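Milestone 3.1: sequence recovery, worked example.
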């Protein structure tokens, strides 16, 4: 609570026009009472040398508690984005712990990966970030994710026509999928600032919707789209309108992309098996 009070001091010092008040609590049910938009960031951050399996074991029970609290206390229209890693599986745990909340209200954040991919392409092509469009993330927020450059454009032109395929398949994919680890190696802590910015992007898109012809990466409950196993929290390109997300349909994938989609799905299935005791 002492540390949380320090965060409140910083928020107040930001003088944000839209902050009308801040309430803090170490009681999850009290904290989530009547909440419309929930950002679940309260996981142990990954530290240097820490494996994903370690994160799952430590953080899984946290999201059981938070899911139950949301179920009993949140507003009827609550929308949840899980930021704490491993976010896809943590979102799955929270969703299963909140049986009275529709599954589609639970999402995990891959917007950070989309932002990273956008920045890498913009830097490579020496353009501003707003010139990059239709780059999206498939699967898990982990090194197995697939930043789909095949559908990406730069100022309306296909990225695959502008950038060498070897760079895209190697340097680009590796840089985006391991960016979090690289930041930990560089600064000795996880990427808090860029993650916070991406969380705001995620919820803003969910609230305001996507622009015509655009889409955003969101990890959402799979119903088998694009051959993914049902029930996973899997990142897809989504459009959003009237507060509801829809997975973009009809995108074609090369054999290379299909292999990437299957690999990240397999990892999510393995994570689900690891936490199966928390999903009952």
């Amino acid at each position: 609570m002492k540390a949380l009070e320090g965060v409140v001091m910083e928020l107040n010092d930001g003088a944000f026009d839209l902050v009308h008040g801040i309430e803090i609590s170490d009681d999850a049910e009290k904290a989530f009472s009547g909440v419309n938009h929930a950002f679940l960031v309260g996981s142990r951050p990954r530290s240097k040398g820490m494996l994903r399996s370690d994160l799952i074991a430590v953080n899984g029970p946290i999201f059981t508690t938070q899911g139950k609290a949301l179920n009993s206390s949140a507003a009827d229209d609550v929308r949840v984005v899980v930021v704490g890693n491993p976010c896809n599986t943590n979102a799955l745990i929270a969703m299963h712990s909140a049986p009275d909340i529709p599954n589609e209200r639970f999402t995990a954040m891959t917007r950070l990966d989309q932002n990273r991919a956008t920045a890498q392409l913009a830097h490579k092509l020496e353009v501003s970030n707003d010139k990059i469009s239709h780059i999206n993330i498939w699967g898990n927020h982990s090194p197995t994710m697939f930043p789909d450059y095949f559908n990406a454009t730069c100022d309306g032109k296909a990225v695959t026509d502008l950038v060498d395929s070897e760079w895209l398949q190697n340097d680009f994919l590796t840089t985006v999928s391991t960016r979090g680890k690289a930041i930990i190696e560089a600064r000795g802590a996880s990427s808090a600032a860029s993650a916070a910015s991406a969380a705001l992007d995620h919820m803003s898109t969910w609230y305001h919707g996507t622009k015509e012809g655009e889409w955003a990466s969101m990890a959402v409950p799979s119903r088998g789209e694009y051959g993914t196993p049902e029930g996973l929290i899997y990142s897809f390109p989504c459009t959003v309108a009237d507060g509801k997300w829809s997975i973009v349909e009809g995108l074609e994938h090369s054999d290379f992309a299909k292999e990437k989609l299957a690999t990240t799905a397999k990892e999510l299935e393995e994570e689900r098996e690891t936490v199966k005791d928390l999903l009952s």
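Residues 52-73 form the longest helix (22 residues). The chain has ten helices and eleven strands.
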